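Structure ticket #2291
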Amino acid sequence: MQVILISENRNLFDAKIEILITSKGIVVGGKGLAELLREIEESGSLRSAAKKMGMNYKRAWLKIKMAEAKAMVPLVERRRGRGGYVLSDEGKEFLRVYEEVESKLKDCGFI
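Resolution: structure written out below.
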């Protein structure tokens, strides 16, 4: 998420707000990971989520695996029986925290 606030002197300064979700002080992910998890939650498919976001499957898989390594918890789980993926409890929590912060920033007019 990026927000540009325009100052009186537009050539000198601007500001940017980016939401980064951390675990034990380590940045786990931000907007891209939140969007990927949201798409997985909606579609139940990593391949479909990656395609919708314009990235290949391997890149999406690595994004999730890197975030899981940083958080030291699984963010997605294989769906039993039908295949595909669902968010783990930790993945749901990541997305909940991201969306809560995003909503508060929108309410304040920052994004």
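Closing remark: Residues 39 and 66 are 18 Å apart (CA to CA).
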